Amino acid sequence: MEKNLVKTDSWLKTPRKMKRITTQSIFWMMGTAMLLAMVSGCSKASVKPSIATNLSVMNLAPSVPATTIYLNDTLATADTGIATGQFSTAYAPLGPRSYDIKFKDPKTDSLIYDLASSDYAAGSYYTIILYNNPGSTAAQATKILDDFSTASASWANYRFFNMCPGYPHVDFYMNGVNVQSNRGTADNVTNTTYNSFQNMTPTDYNLEVKVAGTDSLIASSTGVNLAAGGVYTIFFSGQKGSGSNPLTITALAAKTTNQ
C-alpha cells in the first residue's frame, strides 16, 4: 500500500503565473519564452488564457522513463524530458490552432507516440495524457477537453481516473464510501463521460483505491481538502514495487469557479 498527498513537483524551465489558475494548481507550465516565441508566434505577455488555447500534459506511462514533447515538431520541453509520474503545474497558454503532439525518447530521439494533429480552440483547456494499457508496454496518448462549465462555486468538483495498468479494475472510495465502482485503466478514453466533473461536499477526504469488488486496499491518501469552488482531477497511477514511480493517489487542483 502506498500513500500520497497533493503533489507539487515541477520540471519546467521557466514557470510563469497565469490568471484564473489557483495557487494550488499543480499542472506544470509548458509556456517558456522559447515555446511561446517558436510555437505560438507571440510574446509571453500577449498570450492570455482567455484568448489562447490552454494545454497541460501528464506522463503516466510506467513503460516510458522519460519523454520529450514536440508541438508541431518544435521541442516544448527540456532536452532531458519529463519523467514518468510527472505532470503539469499549470496550463500553458498557446496560440489557438492545430497541433501535432509527438512524444520522443530523450536519449535516442525515437518516436514513442504521435498524437495526430487536431484543433485546439481559443479559450479552451486541454489535458494530454501519456499512458499504458494493461499488459502492454506500448505507450498511448489521449487528448481531453477540460470542461469547467458545469463546475459549482458552492460544491467541490472532482473527477477520477484510473491510470495504473497494473490494476485494470479498481473501486474508488471517499471517506469510506465507494463512489466509483469497477473503474478500468484509462476507461475515460473510451467513455468520455468520466472526464466530466461531479459535485461533492467541500471537506477533507480520506481517499482509497481498492481492487474492484473486494476490500483489498491498494493505495490511500488521507486528509485531502476539496474546497468549495475547487476543481480537482483525482487519479490513481504508478507501478507496483517501483521506488521512483510508486502507486499513488494524486489530487490535482485546476482552476476555481469563483476566480
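^ that was protein a. below is b, sequence first then the C-alpha cells
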Amino acid sequence: MTVSTDILNQQSDSDILISIIMPVYNCEKFIRQALDSLINQDCPEKNYEIVITDDGSTDSTGKICDDYAAKYSFIHVTHTMNMGVSHARNTAMFQCKGEYITFCDGDDEVSPQLISVLTRAVDIYGKPDIIAYSHFKIMPSEGWPVYDIKNMKSSEAELIDSETLIIRTACSWGGYSWNKIFRSELAKSLRFDETLKVGMDHYWLMSLLTLHRDIKICCINYYLYHYIDHPNIGQTRQLDRVYDQNGMKRSIIYYEKTLALENFPERAAEKEHGRIYEQSVFVLYENQVDFSQDTYRRLRSYMRRYALEYYRSYETSMFLKAATFIKHILIIFHIHKRRKKNPRH
C-alpha cells in the first residue's frame, strides 16, 4: 500500500505541542529571516505550527507568507484589514491547535534550539502553565552576540507563582509575550486589548496573571528569542516611547488600566508608580511638545504622587535615579519661571 507524500507531511492536531503566533505588517525586508529561523529548528520532528496574521500589509509581506505556507504545511496564513497588532494576535490565537502558544514578531528571529529546549522543558518541569525564557536585544549595526545552549538540567529552572512574575514584570520596561510560552487554554482565556496602542503585551500579561493566580510558572535561563532593534521601520509593533501628544495619552490610559486591575499586588503597584514617575520626568524634560492642559496636569500629578516610591523602591541604578532627580529639579525651576511670566498658567 502506498501513501502520498502530502499525507505524510501533514500534521494531526495531537502532534502539535507549540503554536507560534506571528503578526506581520509591512516587514518584507525581514519576514524571510524570521520565518527561516522558525523553520530551521534542530528538533527532529515538526511538533509545532506557525500561525501568521497579515495585518493588511501594503508591501509584499502577505505574498511572501503565502509562498512559505504553500511550501510548508505547518505554516498557516490569514489576511485581515489593518487593525493593529492586538487584533492580529487575537485572530491567530483562536486558530491555534497547539498545547502551548507563543509569539514571534515578523522582524525578529529565534534561536535554532527554541523548540527543542521548550519541548524538553515541558517534559522535565511537569507541563507548567507558563515557561519564561531569556532574549537577546540585537542592534544590527553592532553584530550578533555569541551564545551557547547547554544540556538542560532541572537545577537550571526556577519555579515561581503568578504574583512573583507580576512584580518582576512591573520592575522592567517590558512584560513581553514573545519570551514565554503559555498553555493554550490559559492564553485563550483573555484577548489582547485592541483599544490600547502602547503597552499591549505588558497589559495582557499583567491581566492574565492577576486573573489566574494559582498557576505554575517556570523560568529557564536560555536565550531563545532575538529581539532585533531595526532602526527607522514602520511595523505592526508599536514603540512604547512615542512621546507625542497622542502617545502620552495612550500611555496614560495604559498605566491607569494596569493599576486598576483587580487584586494587583501592592509591591507591583509601587514599581508601576516608579515607571510612571520616571516616564513623566523624561517627557516633561526632554520633549518640546505642547501638551494639552489635561495631559500636562496628569504628568505633573504623577511626579508629585510617585516621586518618593521611585527613589525608595524602584529597581534602577543610582546613576539613573540621580539623573532623573536633576531633571525633576530643572522641571520645577522651569515651571516656576513660566509662572512668573504667566501667572495664570
